Amino acid sequence: MTSAKPFTMASDNESGFELDNLTITHPITARRVKRGESLRGCYKILLLGTTGSGKSTFIETLCPSSKPTLAISGNTLESVTQSLQEYFIDGITPSPTSSNPAQRIVLIDTPGMADDKISENAVVNGVVGWLYERTHFINHIIYFDRITDVRMGGNRKRAIELFKLLSGVQAAGNVTIATTMWDQLGVSDAGDGVESSRGEERRKKGETAMNKALERFEELRRGYWESFTTSNTNPNPKSPTSPSPSNPTPITKFINTQPSALHILNTAVSRYSIDTNFEVEKPAKTAGNGVVRMPFGRVLYEGLRERLERLKMRGRGVEEEIEGMSGGGVVQGEGGVMGDLDLNTEDRDELLQLLMKEKEDVEFMKGRVEYELSGFGPVLPPEWGIENN
């Protein structure tokens, strides 16, 4: 496909739509940016979201022929992406007829928030460090959020609130929200899926699951994302939490197909702006300093404190399980996972090795979190009303 005309695609789940801001020149592929390669002239899109929300899957779905070589997504709630990664997207560029002057698209994949192995503080500081070293600014952010999450749990809510602070409502026009896992509704809620040969009952369950997801979609738009998705002609540009932007954020559906990914990318490219002014860019523009003083600093600090307490509890549980083995079994400790067991010597030795390894891992993660907390300094901003102990 070499035409510069708008490219039209359709899938089983979508009517045809025009990619009026994109030009497809050949099969779309992705490759990691090599060290030293310049991002000049690129439209830089940062991908953020919780672990397992579909950021890496989005890249592989957009570029299906690259999936075997990328191998960056997983079907678990444990982040496969453990460090920030840049990907050149080839075969597609902003259309000459659009207002976007970029010559190439680059997607920046990030580790997931609300992950057991990496803190939100580490994720954000990784982005800030990358901005300082590479570019100082990004053009657009796509935030990924699972529609299959029935409840707004604490981790998910914290991630959304943190993201709002990282963006700032003044940059809402340069944000796209991509709700994900729509293709999983039939599998998770209707057994073999909406089109199952088992008949009408499963189809009804699938329809019910979809209807509930659509209700959650509207709840997200009108509830948790309202300050970003509701238009206001007179926003306060000085306040990152000022409600209602003049150019509101679109909220989209990613159904795990290439046309769906292209539709979201087309939306992101269409919202080109010379000055994005994301809050997360500001520390990089001041020599990489000032994260603590940013609106999101307190959220990062509190997240680390909570993470440290969870690790301490987990460590106590492991210690109690190890001690309990001396009595001929395994006792249930605080935060532990084992009940009373009657084990032979071989099984006991194997379990003890596993527990000792877990203890080592917990101690390592505790040390890392304590180190991150030390980065906030001995004295916290007085407006937080928190003592750094």
TrEMBL record:
Comp. bias intervals (Basic and acidic residues): 195-209
Biased segments, Pro residues type: 237-248
Residue span, G domain: 44-122
Region (Disordered): 188-209, 227-253
Molecular function, one GO term: GTP binding
Gene3D superfamilies reported for this sequence: P-loop containing nucleotide triphosphate hydrolases
Protein name listed in UniProt: G domain-containing protein
Organism per entry: Panaeolus cyanescens
Lineage: Eukaryota, Fungi, Dikarya, Basidiomycota, Agaricomycotina
